[in-house]
Amino acid sequence: MTKSVMSIKRHELLTHIASSVENDAIDFGLSADVASQLGDNVATTISELFGGQNFTFPRDYIFKLNQRDLQIYDEFKGTNYAELSRKYNMTERGIRKVIDRVHKRMLKQKQPGLFDFSEE
After folding, report:
1. 61-110 is classed CATH 1.10.10.10
2. Which residues lie closer than 8 Å to 9 by C-beta, 6 or more apart?
3. Which of 10, 18, 54, 80 has the greatest CB tally within 10 Å of its CB?
4. What distances in angstroms separate CA 117 from CA 6, 34, 120, one per listed residue?
């Protein structure tokens, strides 16, 4: 018994990738038909290049948060908490926490660890 073309389903991950690319392409002004073809081609390429391999994808939320946090820190002028809270849709307390967290990270990067020895 053969499966009809309509009954063959794509893996959930590849379906999601194709759909996401299609939606983004439409947002960038491509026609729905071209966007759909692009989404399918991207999913097919990923499948052909990496099919059969096992991957663990990082959630990447740390990168996104870090980028936003660094941007807030860079825009901080010492007293503009209210302005930043409106811009980033956060509470002033949240903005203060972000600035404090980034500031501590910056200090930690500049300061050598207790057991960091350099050979001279």
Report:
1. no
2. 15
3. 18
4. 64, 57, 9
